[in-house]
Amino acid sequence: MNPYFIKEPSLISFSGGRTSAYMLYKILQAHDSVLPEYVHVTFANTGKEMDETLDFVKDCQDKWDVDIKWLELDVDYSLPKEDRLFYKFVSYESASRKGEPFEKLIEHWNKDRTPRKKNLQYKKDGTWILPNPVARFCTDYLKIRALNWYAKSINLETYQTVLGLRYDEQRRVHRRKNSKYETKKKTSLMPMYDAKDSILDVQKFWEQSNFDLKLPIINGETPHGNCDLCFLKSHNKTVQLIKEKPSRADWWADIEKKSQNVFRRGRPSYAEYIETIELQPSLPFDDDGMDCFCHD
């Protein structure tokens, strides 16, 4: 049986990277280029993706003639408190590009809810909580809950989340299979792992394709992918990405200043990165960053 042939109601989580796009193509190929009506494709936009990522999602949508649902978190303070945070459909043209969903989530998290103090960067002096390596509520709300909202909006109660985890990502696969997200009604399907497709298969596919994600591959990965300066990226990657384009750090530094807090303790704030970046030595794009749901 073709691992990419899907027989049950499913949501394909398309991150906008080469790996998940490869998976989407193989699923389309397994179904003669037409997805069954019980298979849905979603892309959750945080507002901090690279422009090239949004261009790539649209290219896949148009060139493969596949319906991709673009989702975004939003907040409306004119609504009752319990309804202020919600999700909506957007398009390539209307998708946020200045971090709006991310910033609205942080504001909502600190204004409209009473946060648990355990594992959160919280102080009684009014310091705002920011997503951090221990409490990644950005991934939870901007990605995972957006997917769950879409399932609920189409009355889908029992389904598979189709993830682009490769055969060479066994640690991620094992973690996902044993995570809290696996329930009787919501399970994960990882066809790339089952098909034993690796990063080499992905790279070969895009080398032969008539279009590609216009972000560089460095040491077998795409360091510019996902949120442009995600706090889970390693120090070296952060330095190199800011060196390439210093303005990338502005949004992150502004949020930290506004919140009187930092996204990640134990290393420079984004403002400090900006101030000292010219003094930093040339560093390699290493691969010791942390994993999250927003994988390639």
Which class do the helix and strand fractions yield? alpha/beta
Major sheet: arrangement of strands: 4-3-2-1-5-6
Sum up the overall morphology in one term: globular
The sequence of SSEs as H and E is: EHEHEEHHEHEHHHHH
Which percent bin holds the helix content?
25-40%
- Per DSSP E runs of 2 or more residues, the count of β-strands stands at 6
Largest sheet composition: 6 strands, mixed
CATH evolutionary superfamily of the largest domain: HUPs
Average pLDDT reading: 91
Determine the number of helices (DSSP H or I, runs of at least 4 residues).
Answer: 10
CATH topology of the largest domain: Rossmann fold
Query: What is the CATH architecture descriptor of the largest domain?
Result: 3-Layer(aba) Sandwich
Radius of gyration, taken over Cα atoms and rounded to an integer in Å: 19 Å
Uncertain runs are none
Distance between the termini: 26 Å
CATH class of the largest domain: Alpha Beta
| Tally of domains | 2
Report the sheet-strand fraction. Answer: 5-15%
